[in-house]
Amino acid sequence: MTQEPHPHSDKHEFRAEALSLWRITFAPATWALHFVLCYALVSLSCIHGTPPVAITRSALILATLAALAVIALLGWRSYRHWAPGRTGRLTHPYGTPEHRHHFLGHAAFLLAIISAIGVVFVALPLLVIGGCQ
Amino acid sequence: MTDRGNLPRGRAAFWLVVSLALAACDGDQSALDPAGEDASVLALLFWVMVAGAVVLFLMMNGLFFYFTRVKVRSQSRAVARWLIVGGGIVLPVTVLGALLTWGLTILPDHRQAGDGLRIRVTGEQWWWRVEYWPEGSDTPIVSANELRFPAGRRTELILSSAHVIHSFWIPALGGKMDMFPGRETRLSLRPTEPGRYRGQCAEFCGTSHAWMAIEAQVMPPEAFAAWLGTEARSANLPATAAAQAGMALFNREGCGACHAIRGTPHVGRVGPDLTHVGGRATLAAGRLPMSIEALQAWIVQPDRLKPGALMPAYPHLTRAETLQLATYLRGLE
Q1: Residue B106 lies in a domain
Q2: Chain A hits for B97, Cβ within 8 Å
Q3: What is the CATH number of the domain that holds B295?
């Protein structure tokens, strides 16, 4: 009985990071959801008048704050996942499990920043224009 | 020796090019020579962006020069990081955010309520159907291919199109607005300086897109009111024998099937309204300056001047006949 090498060791390792891989999409997905919500509701309000645009505007400003809070939370979690303070490393050039782990945190953190900027840019018309002009 | 000889010539050529380029900023179709409130805002936006671009260009090339010529050694990671984070992320986000905010504050201006007059403009292939709706009126004053505005008043334009997408643009007076079949878009303009300006269809709309221009005249409000009063009237009766013969030809050739002349039995709506065609500065949507010769050339073969034009040619008319017809139309002021 010789012990065979575990045929699924790579897969096993990968599965452990699968959740991290999903996680890096959460912040951009929040941005996308906020984008669709803003465009759809403002279009409905301005074309059909229901819901009234003042209500839509307030609701979407609240939705913007909620989206930013979600993205901030995701960003904070990914920052800890990246852990540049603890490891002393900003980049992770090697394909080791540890480097892969921190790299996914790093990527998620940067995506959270750009998603936050995206949400703010999409919400600017709500603040500056306000109505259907 | 040759170097010395070439230097002043090179410098002269440089200033020649610069002055030619700057001279191109003038003119009746220049967004950089604004004649109204709306165009001024856009010109300011343009100049601020140009100035910003110049600063960024100098900064980028300055850094490049500094690190390749002045301080040629490898930089610390801290310097590199600050340059990337500051110059690559923080600066562009701030600049774009500020420009976006400013742009958004300008955006609603194009739908500002007017001071009463509304003008409905419909894009045709390749001309402009124009209707003036003074405040409180329930029937429009129909015209074509020329727009007149009262200076200092805000006029609302209601834009649409008959067949394909066009874009309405009088650069000296304001921004661009697309015209869609089956849909209305709005543009509100407040021209301030009386004068003649040129507009141009700014969305490719077929063979003669480039020949689809529009003359815009900004007039002092009293002069505008007087002009609109004249424009609302029926056509002049032909004054001379030649013009009377021209009117008879207009009937005989069936021109009224497509063209309307108010005060006559001709009520066609396919082509431009000709009630006051002779009073316009141009013929066929800016294609030719208004003159008897231009009218003759146009009638004989419109397609030669404006490829794809829907108006049929009248090559069977003699020169004498086209002269009579043109004399009649030129007299419709």
Answers
A1: no
A2: 120-121, 124
A3: 2.60.40.420
